[in-house]
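Entry for the shared binder. Reason: the reviewer on the internal report wants the predicted structure included alongside the sequence.
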Amino acid sequence: MKRRTVESPQRPPRGWLLCLLVSILLVAATTLAVSAAALVTAKFIRLDGLPHCFTVFASGPDVVPGPGEADPFHPELGPMAKGRVEVGDECLRWEIVCFNLSSPVTSMALHGPLHRGMETAPPLVDMNIGDVGKDGHFLRSKCLPITYEQELAINSRPGDFYLQLNSEAFPDGAVRGPLGTRCGGSL
């Protein structure tokens, strides 16, 4: 009778368990990195595809170093500008209404970012509106191109940016106000 040889099962190569663990860890790390990147990106990009919109309320007493334009007898009715600023698709748009300014608005700029301990920041975007008049004038823009980096900075920390309007009587700042809460809709 022929002797049957039974082959013993081959042993896996040494370190197979270590290779398996390393592979699992690499897959988990990649998944975690992709998820984290998606979360960070989602913070700055609206899921509905619309640009970010921020409210603005600017007044004379907020101008630094000041003084900006103010009405000492009726501060609540003094010079001001209200509106909203929209940032998205590497584009800046705005709707601003000016009230009670003593002279025409000559320029407007978005300043920032403010860093810790700073009261002023250089203009980030010159809105170049020219002479638009005074009292109750409605300022509205079309797309003013900005870089992706500027858009990302504004959308990630809007409170570090402020709008400043200059007038003939106050060339260094008539009214100023920070980008405020997010608003709905689009311009």
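Summary line for the report: Strands lie at 52-59, 80-88, 91-99, 105-111, 123-126, 138-140, 144-145, 162-167, 175-182.
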